[in-house]
Structures are given as structure tokens and as C-alpha cells.
Design a protein that fits this description.
43% helix; two-stranded antiparallel sheet; mainly alpha; single chain; 235 residues; binds zinc ion
């Protein structure tokens, strides 16, 4: 999960649809804007170029129980069907980190360790961050149905593949430390827009002593008190 810059004002259809008894929150202007703002990447698992994108509500609207959440532009997110399905569980009802308001990389560790995906909060007391970490880990490991066994391991395999691409380029960098081509490839692998960016960026940050020249590509958003307050319990 990486920081996303949500564009404003909200797509026009939302205000219009909110007035209808059976209004839609997924009109074309909403879809196009979400796809572009989120770089066509699921904000939870960070898989790219989604074939089955969903408009996900950060805080659930529960089929009309919370109508104000249904058409709220700030509550609409771009996710894959797999992650939307896993998040649709009452244990996530109180919400996860809003990556449009706070930079997840500032608060969380993202790692592929051995055969395990580990996503942890730096602040073990914070419930929102804990839920966020649990959700992201589940999207790579939950195997409670036949389909999820497949879709979770598919994400895990793709994450592994993406990390291997990074490791390969880092080896190249050891061999040719001056190569601008290698640096440029690594820089593009570390862009927030790229697949599984939080994991790759975290790896580089954790190996800062080994790769001081790459730290400029994994900088965090500047801390902002206002955003922290909007996020609720994120300090
Ligand atoms: Zn996903």
C-alpha cells in the first residue's frame, strides 16, 4: 500500500446519483478517475493492470445503512475483486488506513521474508494500522475457498517475481555501480505507480547502508499534522 494522490473535485455523477433512490456510485466518470488516480493498481495488494477492478468503500455503506458513505468521493477506492471480497468482513468494518490521507510507508513495514509476506505496523498499539497489516497479509495468504487458494497464491507469486526483478537489478548495480541504465531501471521499479511498490521501497529503505544512492527514490511524504488528525487514531 502506497500513498495515493486523490484528485479533486469529486466526479460530477456522485452528487447527481446521491439524489436518486437507487443511485450508482460507479458511473463512468468515477471509474475513469479512480483508475487514473490509483494508477490502475489495487490499493490493498498492489497488483497492477486489474482485469476485475472494483469500486471499494473504505468504510462500508452496508447497503444503505450509511448512505452518506456510499457516494462520498473520499470513501471510494480502486481494488481488485479478491481484496474487496476479503475486506468485506466485519472485522474490517471500522476501517483501515486511508492511503489518500496518510503515507502507509511511514507507518508500516512491508516485507517478503522467506516464504512469508509480513506487513506490520511500526506502532503495535494502533488498531487501524494493525487491521491494515492483517488485511494485506490475508490477501497474499488466505486460502479459505478453492478460488482464494488460487488468487492468493497468484498474488504471492507475482510479488515474488517483482521482488526478483529488483534483486536482479541490485546485483547488476553491484557489478556496474556507475551504470545509468541500471539506476534508471531500479528507479522505475521503485515508483509508487509500479506493482508491489511498498515492498520494493521498504527493502531499499531497510538496506540504506548498502544502497545510499537509491534512498532518494524511496523518500516518504512529508509528515503533516493535519492529515494525521483527519486519519483519526494515526499519530
Ligand atoms: Zn488486490
Amino acid at each position: 500500500m502506497v500513498k495515493i494522490e486523490r484528485s479533486f473535485p469529486a466526479p460530477k455523477s456522485l452528487a447527481v446519483e446521491a439524489q436518486k433512490s437507487n443511485g450508482r456510485y460507479d458511473c463512468q466518470d468515477v471509474i475513469e478517475r479512480l483508475r487514473s488516480d490509483f494508477h490502475n493498481k489495487c490499493y490493498i495488494c498492489e497488483m497492477k493492470d486489474l482485469q476485475d477492478p472494483n469500486v471499494e468503500h473504505l468504510l462500508p455503506h452496508k447497503n444503505g445503512k450509511f448512505p452518506e458513505r456510499k457516494f462520498d468521493w473520499g470513501n471510494l477506492f480502486w481494488s481488485c475483486g479478491h481484496c474487496n471480497g476479503i475486506k468485506n468482513n466485519s472485522k474490517y468494518d471500522e476501517g483501515i488506513l486511508d492511503c489518500c490521507k496518510a503515507d502507509p510507508e511511514k507507518y508500516m513495514y512491508f516485507g517478503l521474508e522467506g516464504n512469508e509476506v509480513i506487513v506490520n505496523s511500526f506502532d503495535s498499539e494502533d488498531e487501524t494500522l494493525k487491521r491494515t497489516g492483517m488485511l494485506i497479509m490475508e490477501t497474499f495468504s488466505l486460502k479459505n475457498t478453492g478460488m482464494r487458494t488460487y488468487t492468493s497464491s497468484e498474488r504471492y507469486k507475482q510479488l515474488q517475481k517483482e521482488m526478483n526483478l529488483l534483486y536482479k537489478q541490485l546485483e547488476e548495480l553491484h557489478r556496474s555501480p556507475e551504470s545509468q541504465i541500471v539506476i534508471r531501471i531500479i528507479q522505475s521499479l521503485l515508483r509508487r505507480e509500479s506493482a508491489f511498490a511498498a515492498f520494493k521501497r521498504c527493502y531499499i529503505r531497510r538496506h540504506a547502508a548498502e544502497y545510499p544512492q537509491l534512498q532518494q527514490y524511496v523518500e516518504l511524504e512529508e509528515p503533516s499534522g493535519r492529515l494525521g488528525a483527519e486519519q483519526g487514531n494515526i499519530r
